[in-house]
Write a structure and sequence with these properties.
Blueprint (H helix, E strand, L loop, with lengths): L16 H7 L1 E6 L4 E6 L4 H11 L2 E7 L1 H12 L25 E3 L8 H15 L2 E8 L4 E7 L2 E8 L4 H11 L11 E9 L2 E12 L2 E10 L14 H10 L5 E6 L6 H12 L6 E5 L10 E4 L8 H8 L6 E4 L5 H12 L3 E6 L6 H8 L4 H7 E13 L5 E2 L4 H4 L13 E2 L11 E12 L2 H8 L4 H8 L6 H10 L5 H7 L11
Parallel strand pairs: 2-3, 4-8, 11-15, 11-16, 12-13, 12-14, 14-15
Antiparallel strand pairs: 1-2, 5-6, 5-10, 6-7, 8-9, 9-10, 16-19, 17-18
């Protein structure tokens, strides 16, 4: 076998993506004697002849099944990153801002217009770095492009302010928005495919001082198939939550700030219940992922379709399990309570800082205490912390000052790690995220406390007498070398009972 050269990915000749996808053949490497290709099962021989004509002699062929080939194709063609080209041809862009199909495979687009290449490269970079959001922010003298990776924003490009209207118009055409309307906010969505991966992209525009600001949220459809086991819960929390989901009726709440993974947790819970023996219905704003076998309804306030009215309509559809995207007002809370009292299992979210605080929030919405005590079965609070990159994490030189301030019992020999940064993690020190959780199971004692109007502090003391809080859950990840003290501090206090911190 010919020895593979030490050659960068940029020097490996690439076939046109559409050709590679349709004919099932891709160049994967270069040797001194020629090129190495991968082929999909069933590739026709004439495709190899065409490849030999375009890129040279083929010395090695690697056969892949369809799934392996699609994954390889995705890796090869989404690794180009952000490519910012010459800005000189702006006068020719108007015609390129029209005609984008509703569902587009960006990698198959061979149009060389600079703005189109820029947007394609930006979306590929967002996928490669696992970004959840792309921010396009116009200022007086620049267009700032930022990606939110693992919950943290970082600028990846600063472009000429002259590009802003062209880029915004292009995105608005892709999302089927009105490109002539620049005075009011607009919301839209589009579907994109990059290799074997499919994405739903939510697009939001907002007028600002120097032009329209655009945020694109990328929703990887593969995330809809996560199970509770994939979320990294503590074993006791995982076991208790699965038991709660077996309840025939009642309310299960998930709390936390925006972007803490609440919807993903609810979808994972629904996947357990979705065994075709139950009628499962949801009302969401918006519907983030399509779930097979589950009826999902979109909130539309413009026509009076609110959470409350949607839930009221759903209850006439003979459901067994109902998911309400968020309880945000008295009417929705009352409807959720009534649904649980009439024999339905209701899953929903509330924006609070802790699990017990959800009870206080519902009280503040005007829900009677005796109704809360008889319907709420459990409340899960969660946050997401970034995981340390295993390739470059470094031990903290003096861990004693941290260990003394942590709630959980750690020996002085425990190694606490900090982030460093390397090529693997794009010099952030972190790669991926992990959830930290606290679960309140409403037992008889807590039920009496809720009905009796006990304070939040009293309920907190009882609920977590033997269970992990968010802070202790985070500290266990620190002790296991999964994350850092600063990451846990970013999402919760290390000592919630006393308010102490580092």
């Amino acid at each position: 076998m010919a020895e593979m050269q030490d050659i960068s990915a940029q020097e490996i000749p690439k076939l046109n993506y559409g050709f590679a996808r349709d004919f099932g053949i891709a160049v994967t490497g270069v040797t001194e004697a020629g090129i190495v290709v991968a082929i999909r099962a069933g590739t026709v021989p004439r495709a190899l002849t065409e490849v030999r004509r375009v890129v040279g002699e083929i010395v090695q062929i690697e056969r892949k099944n369809p799934q392996e080939f699609d994954a390889l194709l995705s890796d090869l063609y989404t690794s180009d990153g952000l490519s910012i080209e010459d800005e000189g041809a702006l006068d020719d862009l108007d015609s390129a801002l029209e005609g984008m199909p509703k569902t587009a495979d960006l990698l198959a687009n061979d149009d060389d217009a600079p703005v189109i290449r820029l947007i394609n490269g930006l979306m590929a970079e967002a996928v490669k770095t696992r970004a959840s959001d792309v921010h396009l922010e116009p200022f007086d003298n620049k267009l700032s492009v930022r990606l939110r990776v693992d919950g943290v924003l970082a600028e990846v490009a600063s472009l000429s302010a002259k590009l802003a209207p062209y880029i915004v118009s292009r995105v608005k055409v892709m999302a089927r928005l009105d490109i002539a309307e620049k005075r009011i906010p607009q919301d839209g969505r589009l579907s994109l495919t990059l290799g074997d991966r499919e994405f739903d992209v939510r697009v939001s525009t907002l007028p600002s001082r120097h032009g329209e600001r655009v945020v694109l949220r990328l929703l990887d459809t593969s995330q809809a198939h996560l199970t509770l086991s994939d979320l990294g819960m503590q074993s006791d929390v995982h076991k208790q939550l699965k038991e709660l989901l077996k309840e025939p009726n009642g309310i299960i709440l998930v709390t936390g700030p925006t972007g803490s993974g609440k919807t993903t947790t609810l979808y994972a819970g629904l996947s357990i219940l979705n065994d075709q023996s139950r009628n499962i219905m949801t009302v969401e704003d918006p519907v983030e992922y399509a779930l097979a076998g589950i009826s999902q309804t979109q909130v539309n306030s413009k026509v009076g379709m609110t959470f409350a009215s949607g839930l009221r309509a759903i209850l006439r559809q003979d459901p067994d399990v109902v998911m309400v995207g968020e309880i945000r007002d008295h009417e929705t809370a009352e409807m959720a309570i009534q649904a649980s009292l009439t024999g339905h299992l209701v899953l929903s979210t509330v924006h609070t800082n802790s699990a017990v605080a959800a009870i206080t929030r519902l009280r503040d919405m005007g829900v009677e205490q005796f109704l809360l005590s008889s319907t709420i079965k459990g409340i899960l609070a969660q946050r997401l912390v970034r995981k340390l990159c295993d390739n470059c994490k470094v031990p903290v030189k003096d861990p004693a000052e941290y260990i003394d301030k942590l709630d959980i019992s750690l020996s002085n020999a425990t190694t606490i790690y900090d982030a460093a940064g390397c090529d693997t993690c794009n010099h952030t020190g972190y790669t991926g995220r992990r959830g930290i959780y606290e679960l309140v199971v409403v037992d008889d004692t807590l039920r009496r406390m809720i009905q009796g109007g006990a304070s939040e502090q009293e309920m907190q003391a009882h609920a977590f007498a033997k269970a992990d809080t968010l802070s202790t859950s985070g500290q266990r990840l620190i002790a296991d070398g999964v994350t850092t003290v600063s990451e846990v501090l970013r999402v919760s206090r290390l000592k919630e009972a006393t308010g102490a911190g580092i």
